[in-house]
């Protein structure tokens, strides 16, 4: 999956959306103007031009106001969208095996993709197989699945569905989806108003006698007229959804294969949608409003208005030799398997579900725990408590459970931001105690031994797991956390790279989660305007990834030649307190247009590959840079 090509496609979708929206608005305005001339014109002395001006302004104001209201109602981001359609938050401490499996899969896909764990929602009354991702950015994303996914999909198939949704998170589709919900509400407003007027007949006291009730009223007729005009908005709304959604869903299927490295998962989910009676249909009343962001069609649509390609077409793209006749065989197997599953579920006791393993990637709680199974830090932690034998797997498992609670996640996040140097820890402890009190500082001390027993490579996954709980903290406490992080880091003017990376990510994600709509959008700057920022970022990566100055200069020159071919380049010496300069450089590069960001990322890859070795420092830096530029870590990066 080429993220930057996807960004170009999203911009093309946006242009199509704008053109269709303008066409819808013009058609609605023209229809209302004609109605005003026919109904009001003969009875009013004003000129036709004046009437048309008033009606046009009124319609435009209504559409704009309704669209703005709807977008504002979804300003909470992914959480607001999920709750708007009846989604129920999956608690972090759920004991339901199916929900624990869902949470486990989502957490591991998030870690593998280098994004914070999203909020997890369930549509419990929906038997169809469907899912969606919503939000303005990965920091406020929510993934919502139907009960049908849990009841009918295997682990691999659920993994494929979740990977499909994560492609929307990474590709920036979610912001477009929320905007589209607002625009659709605006152009369908007249239809909604007309429907309410016709339904309210007889309940608003506008008739004077029983005879009046038996005759069509002006109110009722106006409602019918508005519904007829609103059908224009409905027509264009469905066209907009279809135009924006179809190609994205096909590409998301391909992305799911890339993420999971096998086709059976997402293909199996699509096949089950095809053979089950419920398919992917939804029952929620506002299902058409979210049709463009779902995994499958929420209802029966004609070919013109279908938001997704035909199921068989999607399946054959994944498995070219699959034939429709095979669906009947699959249907029989699914029905038999479903009956056996129900019998087993009634007899089986709740059990711990095994974590998801992805080929070739170190992801998830169990995989990280396995990676640290023999670390010296873990051995030291065990020696410190000789009467208790604690494996590193148990340490990570305990911390994984702890970060699912807001206060524990707060304490562990502060541990991750604290220096490992003893001379700085006492000063940083005073900063934490002054901000949060002795109780939090005591918790920080209790968790410090366990966190420090894990290798640095497990810290970012732990932070990703902690993020949903941190978002549950009161806003004032989140702000205190942000200020404390700044205070802890500023104590050491030469803060360590690990600490810098963790604090940078945590601050960025928390700020975007607090104000979802303020998340950055695609920039417009061109690469030459950011040459100094590119030079500094490449210098940081080259310096921390090289074994000596000569290797660093060579890696930096490779990166600069990739970004600016043929241009003269002078070695960028890092300032003593490089972190503040690096922050400003990343913010500057985030304002680049997507094509320029691609060049920057490829240049950084050149620097990383200069010595043929990907160090942990290079891996962490690349993840932080990609997150700051709001693009995923390249699949070929090897990190």
TrEMBL record:
Q: Gene3D superfamilies recorded for this chain?
A: Metalloproteases ('zincins'), catalytic domain
* UniProt keyword list: Cell membrane, Hydrolase, Membrane, Metal-binding, Metalloprotease, Protease, Transmembrane, Transmembrane helix, Zinc
What superkingdom heads the lineage? Bacteria
Q: Which residues form the Peptidase M48 domain?
A: 100-319
The entry lists its GO molecular-function terms as:
peptidase activity
Membrane-spanning ranges:
16-43, 49-69, 180-198, 218-240
Name a biological process GO annotation: proteolysis
Query: Pfam families, alphabetically?
Result: Peptidase_M48
Cofactor needs: Zn(2+)
Name of the protein in its database record: Zn-dependent protease
